Amino acid sequence: TFMVSDLFQALDSSQPFDLIISNPPYLSDESYQQVSKEVSVWEDKHALVAPRYGMGLYERIVAKAPDFLLPSDNDRVPQLVFEIGKDQDGIEEIIKNGGFKAVMVYHDLGGLRR
Asked: Which residues are within 8 A (CB) of 101 and not within 5 positions of it... i.e. 6 or more apart?
């Protein structure tokens, strides 16, 4: 079953999930000033810019995700998957501080952390 929700608004914590995937806005206001004109004209600024230097939505998701994930056992491993921007150097620490143990960051074809 797939669910779409604005953060956790449409979800019920009594029906937890195996996996949460999110591509939240992650640009800081400063980074937004540097995006190409094509991006700034085409995309809504609210879809790109997040509070707290682009980290605010990650913090909110990590804090609430354990309430919506199945507990870990031999058969199920809860997972939280994000796309991150090149400026999210502190994301690993946010995730670890949220109680998640295994944190991995992958690089895209251009070598950028995603």
From this structure: none
